[in-house]
Amino acid sequence: MTAPLDVAGPVAPPRSNGELVFAEPWESRAFGMAVGLYEAGAFTWARFQAALIARIAAWESAPPPDEPYRYYALWLAALEDVLVGLRAVSTDEVSARTQALARRSPGHDHRVGHDHGHDNGHDHGHDHEHRPAH
Questions:
Q1: Is the pTM of this model over 0.70?
Q2: What is the mean pLDDT of residues 15-31?
Q3: pLDDT at residue 3 in the model
């Protein structure tokens, strides 16, 4: 089951020549998390879409004065809303994980499946899982 992404309208992801566009690595990870959880049956796309519409509408009704519109920040916030609503995670867990990720060094972002010199697939201090490339 593939996520039924809107091609146009306020909830449509940014595209260039029909291809999805991500300005930073975390944006593609946020996108992938939402789509992956939907495809795993964690929630309906209508539920996620409603949360995204609500986040976009809230931002549009009171845009922060010094903050530009960032689609994937709202996408991630909508995903958090859905997961908290499903009681899959608590608000405190989301805040703690967000703070932990914010403290990571800028060079920590990398592609899943990239060889980090790990032996036998053991985790050497990273705070995330690695999956073998398919």
A1: no
A2: 92
A3: 84
Residue of 117, 97, 119 whose CA lies nearest to 26: 97
Residue type, 7: V
Buried b (16+ CB within 10 A) or exposed e, 16-26: eeeeeebeeee
- Mean pLDDT score of the chain, rounded to an integer? 77
> Mapped to the 3 state alphabet, what secondary structure does the chain carry?
CCCCCCCCCCCCCCEECCEECCCCHHHHHHHHHHHHHHHCCCCCHHHHHHHHHHHHHHHHHCCCCCCCCCHHHHHHHHHHHHHHHCCCCCHHHHHHHHHHHHCCCHHHCCCCCCCCCCCCCCCCCCCCCCCCCC
